[in-house]
Write a structure and sequence with these properties.
Strand content: 15-25%
Number of strands: 12
Helix content: 25-40%
Radius of gyration: 21 Å
CATH architecture of the domain at 2-80 and 289-305: 3-Layer(aba) Sandwich
Distance between the termini: 38 Å
Largest sheet: 4 strands, parallel
Strand order of the largest sheet: 2-1-3-4
Number of helices: 10
CATH topology of the domain at 2-80 and 289-305: Rossmann fold
């Protein structure tokens, strides 16, 4: 019997719907889904699961360590816990530039407070003052300041001038922040991408309250809109294949017909029926269930069953940046 587990926290609607859908689809394939149960974690000992969908380890280090051990012993963990541990938003933007995907101009800012166990001498390689004027001219104002890693729209600030930036930077503690060009968009889309090939493009309004962000419609129609949708789908697949994410969302802000990738490091994206809506919810549940069943069928014990993106796959013998896209 093949086993698929889902590891989750406070969310309720997606995990149980996923379990029900897998068990409904698996039929006579001898595949069963359940909530992951952890009784003990011993080094180099396999779990009972052929596949695990991870929805919570970004917040629970114990779970992340459990999943790395599971992956090392052959479990197909979705998403790959080794890459997820290394990934962050600033790197993703750098990668997008190399791939030719439009992104806002972005610079990295040091944290306001020194990291624990460091002192002034830990930063002797940092220029004082930094090249602030060059950075401000490059990005322009108004701009957005946000953490270089993490998600959930936490600690995101709109800044209108240098003084406003300094004042808000005081609140960020040890967070390393990015300063990012503001894209004055006419349309905004959030896209599920599963298995590096299945894309669900959803009109999205980030300026609405959380529970109303999916309660919006696309503002365009016709051939231009169709071309835009194909471009967004292609960029979404390109980014996720390069990063190696099996379950992710990509957000695009559209300005002058150009889709700018704004946020594409969401390996445990919102999938709650009360926020994404019925149609999107049923799509993501069904697509995730089919992906997990396919992974369970392909699973081979005692080997690596995780997904590794083209960025890592081609890094060893990389001679051409185009290889990042799997070309």
């Amino acid at each position: 019997m093949k086993k698929i587990g889902i590891l989750f926290g406070m969310e309720n609607t997606f995990p149980f719907a996923f379990i029900e859908r897998v068990n409904e689809l698996s039929g006579k394939k001898k595949i069963v889904a359940e909530a992951v149960q952890i009784g003990k974690v011993e080094q180099a000992i396999p779990t009972d699961y052929d596949v695990i969908i991870d929805r919570i380890s970004q917040d629970v280090p114990f779970y992340r360590a459990y999943l790395k051990n599971a992956a090392l012993c052959g479990t197909a963990v979705i998403n790959n816990p080794f890459w997820w541990s290394a990934d962050e938003k600033f790197f993703n933007n750098c990668l997008a530039v190399k791939l030719g995907v439009p992104v806002p101009k972005t610079v990295l800012l040091p944290s306001k407070e020194r990291p624990a166990d460091t002192s002034e001498t830990s930063f002797r390689n940092l220029k004082f003052p930094m090249e602030w004027e060059d950075m401000f001219m490059r990005i322009g104002f108004p701009a957005y300041m946000k953490p270089f890693s993490g998600g959930g729209w936490k600690s995101v600030y709109q800044v209108n001038n240098p003084d406003d930036l300094w004042a808000k930077h005081q609140e960020t503690g040890q967070l390393v922040m990015m300063l990012q060009e503001e894209i004055h968009f006419t349309d905004y889309y959030r896209c599920y991408c599963l298995d590096g090939k299945h894309v669900r493009i959803m009109p999205y309004e980030p300026r609405n309250p959380m529970h109303l962000r999916y309660a919006t419609q696309a503002k365009s129609t016709g051939p231009t809109y169709d071309k835009l949708m194909k471009e967004i789908e292609a960029y979404t697949i390109l980014l996720n294949k390069a990063l190696g994410y099996d379950f992710n969302t990509v957000e695009f802000a559209v300005k002058d017909g150009i889709p700018y990738a704004i946020d594409f490091c969401n390996p445990a994206p919102d999938a709650d029926v009360y926020s994404v809506g019925d149609d999107n919810f049923h799509w993501v549940v069904d697509t995730a269930a089919k992906m997990a069943i396919e992974r369970a069928e392909k699973h081979k014990a005692d080997q690596d069953n995780c997904t590794w993106g083209t960025f890592l796959q081609n890094s060893i013998n990389r001679g051409d940046i185009n290889k990042l896209a799997g070309i």
